[in-house]
Amino acid sequence: MHLSMALLLSALLFGVGVYGVLARRNAIALLMAVELMLNAANLDLVAFDAWFKDTLHAGQVFALFVVVVAAAEVGVGLAIVLAVFRLRETVAVDELRQLADVDPVVRVDADS
Amino acid sequence: MTHAAWLLPALPALAAVLGLFAGTRVAGGPAVPALAGTGVAFVVSLLLLGAVEGSPATVHESAVAWTPIGGQTLHVGTRVDGLVAVVAVMVCVVALLVQVYSTAYMAGDPRYSVYAAEVSLFTAAMLLVVVASNLFELLVGWELMGLCSYLLVGHYWQTEGARAAAVKAFVTTRFGDAAFLIGIFVVGGHAGSFEIGDVVRSPGSHGAVLTAGAVLLLGGVIGKSAQFPLHVWLPDAMAGPTPISALIHAATMVAAGIFVVARLYPVFLAAPVALTVLGIIACITMLGAALVALAEDDLKRVLAWSTVSQLAYMAAGLAVRGWTAGIYHLLTHAAFKALLFLAAGSVLRTVGTNLMSEMGGLRRAMPVTFVTALVGAAALAGLPPFAGAFSKDGILDAAHERGGALGTAVYAVGLATVLVTAAYVTRMVVRTFLGDYRGNAQTRLHESPLVMTAPLVLLATAAVGLGLPVLPDGWGVARWLDAPLGTTELHVAAGGVALSTGLVLLAGAAVYALWRRNPAADPVAVLGRARRPLAAAFGVDAFYDRAIVRPLHALARGVLRVDDGGLDAAVEGSGATASGLGGGLRRLQNGNVQAYASGLVIAVLALVIGVSLAVAR
Amino acid sequence: MIAILLGLPALGALVLGLVPLPSRSARIVGTAFAAATFVVAVVVAARFDYGAGARMQDVVDDRWLPAVGVRFHLGVDGISLPLVLLTALLVVLCAATVADRLMMSVVLLLEVGMLGTFVALDLVLFFVFFEVVLIPMYVLIAVWGGPRRRPAATKFILFTLLGSGLMLVGFLVMYGATGTFDMTALARAHGRGVTAGTQLLAGTLMMVGFGVKSPMWPLHTWLPDAHTEAPTVGSVLLAGVLLKMGTYGFVRIVVPDLPSAAHDLAPALGCLAVAGILWACLACLALARGEHADLKRLIAFSSVGHMGFVLLGIATLTSVGIQGALIGNVAHGVITGLLFFLVGGVKDRFHTSDVTDLGGGLLAKLPALGGLLLVASIASLGLPGLAGFWGEMLALLGSYSPAAGLSRPLFVTLTGLAAAGTVLTAVYFLAMLRRVDFGVVTDRWRGERITDAAAVDLVAWTPLVVLAVGIGVWPGLVLRVSESAVRGLLG
To answer: Closest Cα of chain A to C142: distance in Å?
Structure first.
């Protein structure tokens, strides 16, 4: 199997993941899409390692790194989503806009 | 002796400073330093006159380096010749008499010490103009006089009239002074130096530059000497105390313009256009002012308009190259006009009003004032042997000799003015002193104290005595005045004297006869409707108000509005624009994480593609 | 000596800023530091070799930032010496009236910046001191100012900061072309090796930068608000010294280092200067006659007019004109400083500086204060015999015959217009005096007991009056000092 086929599959998976991150409303679906992107990267790493077969097997090592980090990240992410759900009764990402910058209320008081 | 000419401005200046700061602490009050300063200056001026006698053409100059200005060094010093000595004596005499007179006239005024100091400072400034050797030195004295005039006209500053008059005087003359300053630049630049000596030494051919400079200098002369069109300040300046009117607005400051023309005469001779301009203005002013004097009811204003008219005579004399005649008239005018003003002050102090319609019959109650005023009036009208006759006739003679359009015009207008002058002088005398008293019966009519009448008598003597110098040779004016080359000598023909005397008697008799018909009424009423434009001074003031003052104020308001609303609004607008832009950009932070992520993805894609393309090339 | 001149006020500012002294001691300590600085300035003046006014004296030249080619280079010559003395004098007189410890500290810090600007001989060092002045002045206005102080202070600092930024870019352009920041070297080079285009670019940037500070029309709009809202001390130093920094920059940097740019920009500068004169006169006239105009605003606008004369003098690029600019600077500092002190005194006593609220009759109610206001106004309108005349007259004389290569008809026209400006100046000052000084005291103030100028006030104001008369009678006091230096400037 040629390297390019694995890369193609990885790219497709990554693309699906990006779509999921940008377009899914449900926060958990978003996290799942992030997982998809991470695993696409993993696939890339492993494919390159299989193709180049270097002594340190850096690709496989880094793939394990990514797996661990992804697991940790999902754990934290789901905890946050749970906390948000408890507070706001919703997990729709586009309804969580507290970080928005609003126009300041213009105070006529010149001492400000 | 001529080396001590610097004392002339220095002494009264010192007296002014002393009087202002220590006046009340000196025994005898603030009058002492004022009288002392002016008195000693008077003695010095007499000594100076003695020193130049016999050789009036010799110039005695002494100067010290004053300040570097760019390329050259300005000097300050004195330049004394016959003209300077004679005028200096005149200034000191009048100033001293006015100071003496003021001790009684201004007695009881709470700000007398300030007044006396200002008069001393004024005297110093005028003497500085007279003895200056450098054009900028002259300018300092010139403008200082303007300042003192402003302060003194506005002496009664609690009244609106005095405040307005003071501002008007300063601003009108300042307008002329702006032209004067540029004239100094032009003339000094042309001569390569600002020393008066260098400026008058062969000014070269009739160049356009020199003519422009001379005309610009005339701007200042017109302002200071109250000629048309800058004459409007002088009648209003009568709001000041009467001794001031006598000193500043009759004898000295207004004569300074004439003096400067005489001083720098070679420049004007080399620019005949300037002399023509001066002549035309003099003609207009001469007759116009005399006509207005005919219609005025306020005694001081009659004298003010009369001064404007007489100054025009002097200017006309200089314009037709009658240099000696013009200066001679300056001297005689100083004597009789100061006399008339001080006499008027004496009358005003007694009756408490300026209006002639409330006077009359004062000759019985105030005999000394009456006689001296009569002498002054005769001199003003031009009756021989009083001084004014010969000086006026000298000017008319010079005009006649000059010939041409200008000479004829001056001659004709001059004669016409003689008629009108005699008319208003007679009217003034009959309405003030003859007939019956028309004022408040309660007023106690009495003669003024000796301190006031003595100067009157002295000036009356001068008004007669100054007629003598026209006698031939050894006693002549030529003893002290050296006419520059190209001017006519003082020459008084019997025919001319007879003609003007005839005109004076004619006009005087006519007015007297009109008055006799109805002693209580104003003889000028016979003019009927023609009186109104005269009384309104031909509407010049109203014209200035509409054409200059009001548009200027509107422009000023407009400028302020544009500054606040336009320029400043642009600055504040830049701030608003910055905030607006920020607000626009802020809209990108909409809190939607997916929007941020989209942006991130697009940017990364763009970078990657961009870099790959760049690397591939 | 120069190092002490800068170090003393810096030390004073530090001491007063950190040590919690009571208000009375703070006043004494602060005034002592300011007085000591003045004494040092006088010593510098006494040691100055007046015969060699063109040469930099009392020079300090140390390594500072070798990596960027910047040296710590200070010195005085005939042009900066009068300004140094003026600054030190005004700060001493101000310090005597300041009662607040922090305000005194801010004033001393301001002094460091002002003195530093006049003695700096390295472009970056000049820029540093130029900027050092901004924050203390902002604090002075924003903390101790009038009711609308915040917007005024913000406008002041942002506008002048913009100007300084552009000026810095100009400096960097010059550095790029010549390779040195040293002002004496640049003056000696007199633009050699820098193309006309580069000179014009650098010159234009600097013209805008210095123009904001001068202030040059139409970049002047920060001035009236800043002056109106600033406390008395702030106004005096702002008008008396800060404005001079802009015109000083023109004379010290643009004229000698960029001669071709100076020639190219001179007509524009002259026109803008005269526009400023006339604009300011008309605005002042409207204020003097208007309803509820602030006296301080009127005097602020009159500063725009006076600095217009200074800029006109510089634009002529002649010895006469630049001498006029320098003496005009000093005279304006003295006279307008005095005016602001007097108006500050009026404001302290009446709690208003509004022309309508004050009514008239100041001369009757408070003779000393009213009399001084009269004298200061007469001096400000340029009466010959007082200091203000020389700056105006020499600028006009220079404009009448400008440097070779400049359009004579244009400059003669400008002379005429500026002369008209002198007439208008008289009009508005007299209108102001008529409303405030003369007339009858209004009912509102008639019964009130208001104290006239006390001995303390007179001690602070008399030196300025004496200088106004002294410089008017002996302009050589300033002109003799700067003469050779100015001639050297023009190469």
So the answer is: 9
Work out whether strand C57-65 and strand C70-76 pair parallel, antiparallel, or are unpaired: antiparallel
pLDDT exceeds cutoff 70 at B482? yes
Per the listing, tokens 């409330």 go with: B358
Give, to the nearest 10 degrees, the angle between helix B112-131 and helix B82-105.
170
- The SS3 of residue B520 is coil
Q: Picking from A50-59, C104-113, C239-248, C411-420, which range would have the lowest pLDDT averaged per residue?
A: A50-59
Is the Cβ pair A99, B589 closer than 8 Å? yes
Query: Is B550 an interface residue toward C (CB < 8 Å)?
Result: no
Q: B498, B389 in Cβ contact below 8 A?
A: no
* B72 beta partners: B69
- Which residues of chain B neighbour A23 with C-beta distances below 8 Å? 594
Q: How far is C236 from chain A (nearest CA, A)?
A: 24
Neighbours of C201 (CB within 10 A): 18
CATH of domain A25-95: 1.10.287.3510
Mean pLDDT of the region B31-57 = 85
Q: Which residues pair with C73 in a beta bridge?
A: C61
Residue C110 included in any domain: no
pLDDT tens, residue by residue, B537-551 = 888 888 998 999 999
Name the residue facing C401 among B68, B158, B189 (closest C-beta): B189
Give me C414's structure tokens: 């400008």
Residue C487: both structure tokens together: 């001639």
Per-residue pLDDT at B388: 84
Domain ranges of chain B: 321-535
Distance in angstroms (rounded) separating the CA atoms of residues B438 and B521: 10
Chains near A with 3+ CB pairs less than 8 A apart are: B, C
What's the full length of chain B, in residues? Answer: 617
Q: Does residue C109 contact residue C132 with C-beta atoms inside 8 Å?
A: yes
Residue C415 belongs to a domain: yes
Going by pLDDT thresholds of 50, 70 and 90, the confidence category of residue C489 is: confident
> H/E/C letters for each residue in B173-241?
HHHHHHHHHHHHHHHHHHHCCCEHHHHHCCCCCCCHHHHHHHHHHHHHHHHHCCCCCCCCHHHHHHHCC
Pairing, β B60-69 against β C70-76: unpaired
Beta carbons of B333 and B310 less than 8 angstroms apart: yes
- Closest by CA to B246, choosing from B372, B357, B367, B359, is B372
- Residues found in chain A: 112
Tell me, yes or no, whether C441 lies in a domain. Answer: yes
| Domain residue limits, chain A | 25-95
**CA B273/CA C108 separation, integer angstroms:** 61
Tokens coding C130:
């130029």
Element housing B60 (H / E): strand B60-69
Tell me how far apart the alpha carbons of residues C70 and C228 are, in angstroms, rounded to a whole number: 38
pLDDT tens across B244-259, in order?
A: 999 988 778 888 999 9
Q: How far is CA B275 from CA B264, B265, B279, in A?
A: 12, 10, 6
d(CA C18, CA B32): 59
Gap from B14 CA to chain C (nearest CA, Å): 15
Residues 6+ apart with CB under 8 A from B577: none
The pair of three-digit structure tokens given for residue A87, joined into one six-digit string: 């507070």
- Which pTM does this prediction carry? 0.89
Q: Which of C388, C281, C276 is nearest to C330 (CA)?
A: C388
- Residue C292 maps to a domain: yes
Predicted complex ipTM = 0.92
Question: DSSP of B304-370, one letter per residue?
Answer: HHHHHHHHHHHHHHHHTT-HHHHHHHHHHHHHHHHHHHHHHHHHHHHH---BGGG---HHHH-HHHH
Residue for token pair 């309804």? A95
CB-based contact, B189 to chain C, within 8 Å: yes
